[in-house]
Amino acid sequence: MGQQIVNGLFLGSIYALFALGYTLVFGVLDILNLAHQAVFMLCAYVALALVLHLHLPMLLAFPVSVAAGGVLGVLVERVAFRPLRGRSDSNISGLISSIALATVLEALALQLFGPDVERFPFGVVPDRSLRLGDAVVSELQVVIIAIALAMLAALTYLLRRTVLGRRIRAVAESPAAARILGINVDRVIASSFFVSSALGGAAGILFGLAFNSVSPDMGRTVELKGLAVIILGGMGSMPGAAVAGFALGLLEVFTVAKIGSSYRDAIAFGVLFLVLVVRPRGLLGPAALREA
Amino acid sequence: MNAESLRDLWLTYQSTVAFIGLNGLLALSVYTTLSCGQLSLAQAGFMALGSYASAVLTLHTQAPFPAVLLAGTLVPALVAVPLGLPVLRLKGVFLAIATIGFGEVVRIFFVNLDFTNGALGLVAIPQRTHVLTIYGALAVALFVLWRIQGSRAGYALEAIREDEPAARTMGIHATAYKLSMLVLGAALAGLAGALDAHFNFMVEPSSYSFGRVVEMLVFAVVGGTTVFYGPVVGAAFLTLLPEVLREVGGRIGLQPGPLRLFVNGLVLLLVILFLPSGLVSLPRRIRRWLEARRAAAHAA
Amino acid sequence: MRLPLHSLAVAAIALLAARPAAATETIKIGAVFSLTGNAAAYGAQQRAGVQLAADEINKSGKLPGITLEVVLEDDGTSPQQGISVFDRLINMTKVSALIGPTLSTLAEAADPRAQAQRTPVVAVSNTKPNAITTIGDYIWRVSLTEAQVIPSAIEIARRKLGFKTAALLYGNDDAFTKAGFDVMKSSLEKSGVQILGIQTFATKDRDFNAQLTALKNLKPDVLLVSALVEQAGSIALQARQLGYTGPIMGGNGFNSTKFIQLAGPAAEGVLVGTAWNRASTDPVNVAFIAAMKARGTDPDQFAAQAYTGLLVVADAIQQAGMKGGRDDIKAGFAKVKDLPTPLGKFSFLPSRDGNHPAAVQIVKGGKFEILQ
């Protein structure tokens, strides 16, 4: 029982980290960035390349790759979203253009790295285990959960205590008003994408380490689960994404333990559905999301 | 070219021709909801329902083919109603997400359904679909959509697409229209699924994934969603392109799989950024550009 | 008439050199494998195996006057593409026979086309039981089905390890892994082993902790897993990490050096039933492995089966009297008997499925060894 709780928290921490980036962009720009999972995947590959070919220790490779993810995110914004900013249907067209960019990035990864699953070499992270009661927790798992929580804390600090954070919140409120106030909206948006993609990239690297696999299609399932998480948590709500991420992780694990593993994925989508139909704003999201 | 090599040419490419037709139907099924401004991504699920319903009938009963096709068309259409009612209230992105969820639930349902062999799917389905059947169905679909476009219903749909709240105040019953389009889209996807099942000898759940409906969306958007025939143009273009590319790509040493994915993504990106009304608007654009050049030449 | 001696010599040499080379007939054999897509790992091995076989057959003069030309195409692990490629090879390139495609799912879509066009197909990696060869009499199979390998593998392992209870984990959204599971379950039941629990996962899953924890808590004597190679590695790793110390046995998906590479230390002691006994000292097998390694590929079962597939085609041509037409090859298949191949002495069963002995492997020291 205890083991399953550990399993759930562990899975949930990765979901939460991924969803944080997702929901940040939605909160600021009102768009769903479906290229997020491509950045998730590419960062894992960057980290892998740094470790395998440049022999960097993970302690160094991790922040470098995360930063690379941020940069990639800024590129995504410039290519897929900025040109569409004036358009009336920018929500849907933005969605489509991010899908397009994600496809292009996945194709590049396939061409460069091949379709096979890769893994980080053994020993790049410590693999000792601890026993907590009847549960076995690996050092890696503890580190990952800790990093996820640390990033959540850092993000909250960023948004509440820094100038950039204030500006991001202003733009999220109303880009027009923010511009009048003298805020460089373009730069704020680029910064949001940087932060969001850095988080997504971090999630990717941790995922690759946690489950020992990096492949061009690793983002696909997480992307769909991520949707369930941000809907459950409430679109645009950071704490919502975190709580919902852990909740979904635990929910999935307990579905497997008590009901049967065939329904594991169905649970995520069932929850998604239920929330959208009954309470579209999710657990902690803002009100008024239906058609005006 | 003599008769025998024509026959060989046909046998080689008949499946491609068939797939163009099927993809055209699928693209139209996404278009129906786009035409009133809704992005529904449930069509892979509807297609699955149509494929399975028709395949089960063929394998377990002696039903004639037209009846089987009808079942494949009606089952998803009926399911679309209870799905649409709660879900069409949601705006833009939320509707898209809800329909993605529905599609996945349908796929997982079939993966777990023992009656249809779960992941193994149904095989040895007799091939009852001919290329002409597919194009006949496509022609009917295009006809229906053409009639809708020019009619009062068509204007109502466009009004909803432009500005739904305004349309409502004008007395247009937006929910009814949106639901009808969802049902129509479901029927088209189901029909395509039934035809596909009886052309490819098999149905299995992995063909009806999120990636599949994204593909349909790409066909529709690339072709153009402002006119009823746009999606079919997109489907034809993007079904033929990989065949052409395979020859070219092989020569420069690029893997065909990633190349096809890359081109699909790139074409979609370019269209969405620079040619938002799709390929069908290309002739108009070119004409306008030529006129502008002629005018500038005159003025000079 | 005085002919200068050296010009006579020159003329003689010219005449000898100008004698026309023996006319060679080219027989085209289509090879359709998943070179891209989900099954690409297997397809790469198959391509290497077939190319080696073609080169060796052409060089060896086993088919005098005939050159085998292998036309390689990618099915992209997509049924649509598989069908297109089959159509093209059959109707445009006019191959005499086809080898492949890689996955059973694609075979079920594309083979009926070949059957309709009376073109023989040799399945070299389709392992779905009660299928494939049932499509028609032009479809033949070299690869043993799961139903041929798994039962004997389980029996051998059971006798050696003496397990009485088992737990099963399988991918339920993939035709291959599900078919493997079905056979595992029925074999266990027939052997009188009690099944304590069954869990499933989806092919795209990477996290198996929940399922493995649930199964581990039941304390089975052995854990059987039906998965593709990518998940196989993660499953073994996570199982060991969670503290499961009992034996793990895998289906055909584990049958790849990639599994050992992915699972690392967790691969030690894992049992896998196999259609290819790589440790066999049969000279044909030893030569095959050496030749593959010389070309830079450490061969796995897929390479061995693809290689055998072309050997079988060549033998069929020989049996048909050096005739390479489609019906000649089909008739020739029926006459293939105890053909020496890396898989062992190969013959077809009346059902046109393959027949040769199977084995069980165990991973020792990072390598597959045969469980004696």
Beta percentage of chain C is: 15-25%
CATH fold description of the largest domain in chain C: Rossmann fold
The main pleated sheet of chain C reads as:
7 strands, mixed
Which two chains share the most extensive interface? A-B, 49 and 45 residues
Report helical residue fraction of chain C. 40-55%
Mean residue pLDDT of chain A? 87
The outline of chain A comes out as globular
Question: How many structural domains of chain C?
Answer: 2
Q: Could you name the ranges of chain C where pLDDT drops below 50 across 5 or more consecutive residues?
A: none
**Oligomeric composition of the shown chains:** heterotrimer
- Percent strand of chain A: under 5%
| Unreliable runs of chain A | 288-292
The strand order across the widest sheet of chain C is: 7-6-8-9-10-14-15
CATH superfamily of the largest domain in chain C: Response regulator
End-to-end gap of chain A: 46 Å
Order of helices and strands of chain A: HHHHEEHHHHHHH
- What does the radius of gyration of chain A come to? 19 Å
Distance between the termini of chain C: 82 Å
CATH architecture descriptor name of the largest domain in chain C: 3-Layer(aba) Sandwich
Write a structural description:
The complex is a heterotrimer of chains A (292), B (300) and C (372). Chain A is mostly helical and 292 residues long. Chain A has 11 helices and 2 strands, in the order ααααββααααααα. Chain B is globular. The termini of chain B are far apart. Chain C folds into 2 domains: 25-144 and 280-357, Rossmann fold (3-Layer(aba) Sandwich), CATH 3.40.50; 147-274, Response regulator (Rossmann fold, 3-Layer(aba) Sandwich). Chain C is built from 12 helices and 15 strands. In chain C, helix 2 (40-60) packs parallel to helix 11 (301-319) and helix 8 runs parallel beside helix 9 (257-263). The longest helix of chain C is centred in the first third of the chain and has 21 residues, at 40-60. The N and C termini of chain C lie far apart (82 Å). The model of chain C has no long low-confidence stretch (mean pLDDT 87). Chains in contact: A-B, A-C, B-C. The interface between A and B is large, with 49 and 45 residues.
